[in-house]
Amino acid sequence: MLASGVGLPWALKAQQLLANDWGVAADVWSATSWTELRRDAVECEEHNLLHPADEPKVPYVTSALAGTGGPVVAVSDYMRAVPDLIARWVPTDYTSLGTDGYGMSDTRHALRRHFHIDAESIVVATLRLLARRGEVPASAPADAAVKYAIDDVSAAPVGETGGDS
Whole-model pTM above 0.90? Predict the structure, then answer.
């Protein structure tokens, strides 16, 4: 999992839920700047275009994630277009979660659940990618969605993740 800013505690909780409830080990990486990761990748592409005879430069995000065994789920409290900035340079299955849509007024927990950027939604997104790869039972994502009631904003856990002040 890649997470930025206040999304990091959500990813860390998702890591625990995946391990405890589904027997899935997951790494959590902090993405300090989606824009800088993209800028580096674009610079590598430009260098490779201008110097085709040289050893190709590899974007940092590509080399950092090259050895990962599973899919990558990116989570941000920005619109998902922001973590999508790096999608084409991630060398494995990739999906992103973000706060797409119009603003609304509710508790932080309910908003995270509404936008599906809370830990439980991250778990479902991760299981979905793993199920498509055949690495968990095909029913696991649906079972998790029901278990965590991710379609119900009132079911969002209160006080269990960061940024609750």
Answer: no
Kindly list the strands in the beta sheet with 2-3, ordered across the sheet, starting from the edge strand earlier in the chain.
Answer: 29-30, 2-3, 72-75, 94-97
Q: What is the pLDDT of residues 37-65, one digit of tens each?
A: 999 999 999 999 999 999 999 999 999 99
3 state DSSP class of 149: coil
Nearest C-alpha neighbor of 129 from the set 95, 87, 86: 95
Q: Report residue 164 CA to chain centroid gap.
A: 20
What digits encode the pLDDT tens for the residues 82-131?
999 999 999 999 999 988 766 666 667 777 877 788 999 999 999 999 99
CA 21, chain centre distance (Å):
19
Question: How is residue 35 written in tokens?
Answer: 């824009």
Closest by CA to 127, choosing from 136, 118, 115, 116, is 136
d(CA 162, CA 159): 8
Helices (H), the chain: 7-22, 34-50, 60-65, 108-114, 119-132, 140-148
96 phi/psi in degrees, rounded to 5: -130, 150
